[in-house]
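Ticket #4471: complex job returned nothing on first submit. Input attached below:
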Amino acid sequence: MESKNKNNHSILRIEGLKKYFPIRRGFLQKIHGWVKAVDGVSFEIEQGKTMGLVGESGCGKTTVARLILKLLESDAGKIIFQGHDIRRFSEKEMKPYRKEIQIIFQDPFGSLNPRMTIGQSIEEGIRILGNKHATNRKERLETLLSMVGMSSDSSDRYPHEFSGGQRQRIGIARALSVEPSLIVCDEPVSALDVSIQAQIINLLKDLQDQLGLSYLFISHDLNVVGYLCNTISVMYKGHIMEFASSEDIFNHPHHPYTISLLSAIPDPDPDIKWHVKPSNGHIGDSDVVPEGCKYQDRCTIAETACLKDKMVFEKVRENHFVRCWKAAKNHGSSPD
Amino acid sequence: MTHDRPLLCVENLKVYFQSNGARAHAVDGISFEVREKETVCIVGESGCGKTVSALSILGLIPTPPGEIVDGQIIFSGQNLINLDEKAMQKIRGNHISMVFQEPLTSLNPVFTIGDQIGEAVRTHQQIDTEALFQYCVQLLNDVGIPSPKQRINDYPHQLSGGQRQRVMIAMALACDPDLIIADEPTTALDVTVQAQILALLRSIQKKRSMSVLYISHDLGVVSAIADRIYVMYAGIMVEQGNTDQIFRSARHPYTQGLLASLPSPSKRGKRLHSIPGTVPNPAYKPKGCPFHPRCRQKILSCQQEYPGMCDYGEGHLARCPVLFKPKGYPG
Amino acid sequence: MNMVEKKLSNDFYIESPLPPKRTRMQEFQRHFGQNRLAILGLFIFILFFCCAVTGLFLTSGSRPIFDPAMVRLQEKLRPPLAKPNLDSLQPQEVPALGVYLMGTDDLGRDVFARMLQGAWVSLTVGFVAVGISVLIGIFMGGIAGYFGQHHIRTDHILFTLALILGTGLVIVNYTFIGIVIILLCLAYIFYSCLARHESTEKETPVLKAVLHSNAVSVDTLIMRIVDIMLCFPSFFLILTVVALLPASIYNIMIVIGLTSWMGTTRFVRAEFLSLREQDFVAAAKALGLSNFRIIFRHIMPNAIAPVLVSATIGIASAILTEAGLSFLGFGVPPPHATWGNILSNGKNFIFDAPWLTFIPGVAILIVVLSFNLFGEGLRDVMNPKLRERH
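Support reply: We reran it on our side without changes. The output follows.
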């Protein structure tokens, strides 16, 4: 990750980001322990590119999204956005950067204010940009709506009149209203039907081509991520387990967790016989974190060394990192 | 494997809902059958009526607002629609059981899982306490819960999502039913857990030689588990066939569109095919073929005539006369 | 932009026809219309409102049409619909309708006129008291819900206590000590303002660390105050306060209002807590909207519906409380009629003149019931989850 190509500079770089939530117990609400929701996450998103963040529920990917948007205060690390570390910025210092990072949510039903019309919701953002004239605002509103494929007469309707896919498009229009440069997409298609999902994915891609947006695309669906993203980070229990380009993740996965994730996707292609590589156990409570590798209890290749040693990110090839010494060693010994 | 005798046969089922003064045709004349020892999948998007058809098999449609207007549901020789509530209760759980989507809300949080499985057994069988305990442990073991003797006294909140779904399956298996209806049992689960549950369902089905009616929106899951597939759209069956027929040579534009719109890494760089528009509101369905407003191959008659089923042979049927070329027809 | 539109149109060229446009108001009317009891409640409420307003005009002024204070000793305890004895009355003493609609009381006063006057009292008490309690409730609940995680520093608490102590001392005539305490407080503010600008490199002394430690969260503070307020049996609290204060209708309104805001506070806090976690609020924050705008534009409109419902039911209980107070003789001072004191007067003649107790009693029953029915109806309409159950 350190290798920086001069041509495509990064828009967002996260370094060692941490967020621990206290577990309080007892009458006095003493802090009993910590849930390490995000435990030293680092990655980089290049200008105009899409990075996928994949993981199962409870692995901390949504927390990462909220930390980047500063909806939550992070505990340690750096959030370098356009060259500035915005992690410790106050609300005031944050003001010019607020509109640069926007978010699209998973649940199309909770993400729009039920008491505001579509037009009012989107106009909140247009107003932020300082558009004084009502006619200008109206014009911009219509442009935004048509950009996401909605007719302009929908602007005075309420969210409950729309279907999930339409609401998701409205959510995108609201995010675009402040002309951001980075959009965090928190599972934007997982609540949608297959046919609608494709519409939204196409829309996101078109908008990226047109407006030069960068995306952080959070999902549990490797197929969607693989289709949409340039690079992928695989996350497990607050750690990034593997980081590589999309092709590398799919063609040469190294971490046992990535391998088990990939094998678990049922492929609709009948030529490929689907069979599950068993992965032991289940994703447990993240407040009981074992020492050493966090994946040890489900890992098929774990050894005694995995129980104690902290795993470090090891480079297996250019722009491909894996947090597993065994996978890295195996790779080194066998020519690839 | 021979599975020729139909176990469940649904014919021309129509379920309408009264809502907001309009009549929603949730299920509008569907027919399907589940044969013995067979896994049948119903695929469709949300709101297409797949859950309603499953509930109507078990007589669980809330009336009002729902109403079974027409049709037959023949299960091992008797028409379930004509049965009264008491007779239905004997069927439910005992002969047909159901696994629901949301494992957290389908389990009662104030009882241990042992109590809940035991209750399912005791409703239909006379059994003493010790035997019941052994039987529950056995069931939990069968569905792959580790150390079932300890786990049996756990409450639902102490289990992970996948384990809860396993418990749900154990409850469904309790009376050794002939048919299990699984309504999106893996939608709320992570992919790795989903894979485990699917593998479990498959192995149980083989071991116990039951039939499974699997309802899902996920074509990937369906391809992994189904013997035969029914594709539903807006309350009607648009296509049916075995897994190969559906995935290799889909004949209905909707099925074709669905398959083409699946994202996968191999399609990167290419534009995803997408079906324009949205699923119609069941209360305001278009005339003629319900899919015609979104169809790219529609002709004029699609807007007027309700499409008939076209037989492609070997059990492969599609409800689209436009694309149908009779045998021996050139081209 | 044109290029994008052309490309996109491929995907979206069909919008499924949207259902006919319906405003929230129309939706509301349709759902409310199905609840007959609520309609009845609303109808009675409107009737009561009209009676109270017209009653105010008809019974006030120097020569009111219905004079609730007109004493006709020779006509006492006449039953309802009795004709006045025209021989023994002065022309101006004859009731306006030529009949005692609801009879007369032990002083020969027209009960109908008194009921009209009392209706206005009940209405204003109900609305003003609930208005006060709702305002306090929304304010406290909103702060507890939205800013609940913020902490109050120890020195701020000490400082506030000292200020209250100082003011109290001044009031009870220990002027010198009081003023010294207040001045000390001001000096402390001045000092801490100055200290903020100094470099923070220096090690903080223990005392300062203790003073600056977080004592209690805003949420805890407000909710414990609510708990304490709920510990008092509120009716007796009101009795005590009313006994100390001069008897007047306004004091009663304020006292009822000040002792009934706790329910609303809990309500609003719960609503704020759940709404604060909603995605649309997160989106508003990400857009960079101010807290003020988020609270008033995004959260409040969604939180207000259940508050309205509880306010409707609150009005009923305020009317009941006022009637109870008047019945016990702590309410509005006697010459002024309220339903409570008509009832209280009548109890002495319950066997001779039962209408004196029945008429105000039934009136209170009907009005309170109608408010409750209306409130229940509102709740059904405004809570979509409950709505589906029907």
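The mean pLDDT of chain C is 81. Closing as resolved unless it happens again.
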